[in-house]
């Protein structure tokens, strides 16, 4: 059963890598919803806390890495935003 948790964690975490690479490559995050990523990141933090309290390593590992990727996307969202002149 733990193997299933690892596979699910790997797949859902890897799903964010293409988005991070696309934003980095194009230097644009205009199509990324800020509200969605703020809500998502809050949820990931909560899953991480849950995993720590439950001592569920697959949950901890997947959500720790996903949190990093989500924070990178949020960082890019602010870094590459267009400022009005």
From TrEMBL:
The chain crosses the membrane at residues 6-24, 31-50, 56-76. The keyword Cell membrane does not apply. This is Sugar transporter SemiSWEET. InterPro entries: PQ-loop_rpt (IPR006603), SemiSWEET (IPR047662). It is found in: Membrane. It comes from Emticicia aquatica. It is a multi-pass membrane protein. Gene3D superfamilies: 1.20.1280.290. Its main location: membrane. Keywords: Membrane, Sugar transport, Transmembrane, Transmembrane helix, Transport.
